[in-house]
Every structure is written in structure tokens, then in C-alpha cells.
């Protein structure tokens, strides 16, 4: 009976997920084409230098964290960054001055193509749940050194709502229900849990349901947070910096697609991913569904990137599939 229902759901979902019928998931948080960088004053030289720095961050974001500095034409692209700007404005907070720069998406994508970078989905922000030495959660202002270090490496930081903090122990243990709640609220599968203890800190990064832990030492809280931002970028880069240009065949086994809306949502996610070129549903059973894809990114990097949005986590391997995934509810 359930297999018959699945067959019906596949047909219904094909209609629901058709382009123009199923709305794509709206982007949450800041646009990947918008950056805020500090400036010393409003002179032309400071502005042009800040715009070049901002473009470097945007290119890193859209390249999945890949280091583009050795690519032919990269330095020239940064010199011409002002020609890619859609708008900019100065911001002042206390005595600090910053420049917000918004780049033209089409112009940035053309620049990436000229640098030989294949299309990838932009990384979602990292949700930070960090506690100070007094055991109290740190707010956005206290986490600025972490956010700035992360931004310089092409990622953005979100601060958890202090009125509804997720349980850090459940997050660090990659509890599916806790991850599903974070994914629904913050639209990310990247979570950083931190505990500062004087000159030491303990960190856990949960990415796609897989926790990674490390510790650090520094002379001050500011240095601890800045070091964590760089270490976090290194961890993400080791998973995601596998961008290719030749087509790759990727087979996915996905559990938890229990309704037509689940199936349609998963297909919409794939169709919204610029690395996906072809999609085919191969088989369906009571346990899960097998999908065959053609992508512009090799399987390891594609699977890692797919789990960053907060709707999927990695599951047990499945025969005949490059990776097993689980759809979160």
C-alpha cells in the first residue's frame, strides 16, 4: 500500500516541483552580493580599497570558500571592482566607520566565469551559539571579531536569538530534532558551538549533521574569537574546496521524503542549486529514494554543500549511492 502511495506522490510531486509552479526557497539573511567593510575615512582611496576587499569576500563566498588568489586575472578583477558595484553607502556606529557595498549579481557571475570557477551554491551563514567565561551567551557585538574573521574568508555569521537559545549539548551531539529546529528557524545547517574559558576555548562545528571539535588558546577573548573564525573557515574549506568544471555523475540515496511536499521541496532545492545540470529519480521504496544527478561539482563537495542549508544531514551509506542523506522534519 505504501509503495502505491509513493508512486502517486511521485506523480503529484512532479507537478508541484515543476518550474514556475513550486516557488523556490527565498534567500534568508544578507545577500551574498552585499558586504560591509571598515574604512578609515570617506576619501576615494579608502573607498576604492574597501570595494576591492569587498569583492574579494563576495568572490570567495560564491566560489564556496575556494582560494582564488592564484587564478589568472584575479588581481585585475579586484582593481576593477568599482565597475561591478550596484550601490554603496557609508555606515557609522559610534566612532567606527564602514562602507556597505552591493555588487551587481550578473557582473560578479561573469567575473567568476572569467576566472574559470564553476557555478556553486553560496554557503548559508554560520549560526553561532557561544558562551563566555561567565557561562552567559555572547551577543552579536561581542562576537564581532569572529564575524569579521569569517567574513574575510567568504562566510557570514548569525547570532542565535538570546530569547530562544537552542540547547548547545543537543546541537553538539547532532540531534536531528535540534538540527531540524535550527534549519527551520535560521535556514542553515552550519552551527558553531563555543565555550570560552579564560585563555582557552572549546569549539564544535556541526556541518550537515557531522560534528567536528577542536580547542584553541589565545591571550584575549578577541584573539580567541578571531582565531576561531579562521579555524572555522579552514574546516569549511577542507570540505567544500573541491570545485570542478567537468560534469560529474552523482547518485544520492535520500531518506525521510515521506510526502509529496517533502519530495517537491527536495527537487526544488536541487533545481535552485546552480551546480545541478540534470536530475532523475531512479527508484523509490519504503526506506528512501535514489536520485541520479549530473553536477558541475564532484560528489564529495556537492554532497557537503547540499547539507549546509539545514534541511538535510548525512546518513548511512547506501549500496549504489555516492552518499546517503536524510531529509529533516
Name the helicity range: 25-40%
End-to-end separation in angstroms reads 23 Å
What is the tally of beta strands?
Answer: 13
Average pLDDT across residues? 85
Unreliable runs: 1-6, 12-29
Tally of alpha and pi helices? 10
Instruction: Report strand order across the widest sheet.
Output: 5-4-6-7-8
Gyration radius, rounded: 21 Å
Overall body shape: globular
Describe this structure as you would to a colleague.
- This protein has 329 residues and is an alpha+beta fold.
- It contains 10 helices and 13 strands.
- A 5-stranded mixed sheet has the order 5-4-6-7-8. Strands 10-11-9-13-12 form a 5-stranded mixed sheet. Strands 1-3-2 form a 3-stranded antiparallel sheet.
- Helix 1 crosses helix 9 (260-272) and helix 5 packs parallel to helix 8.
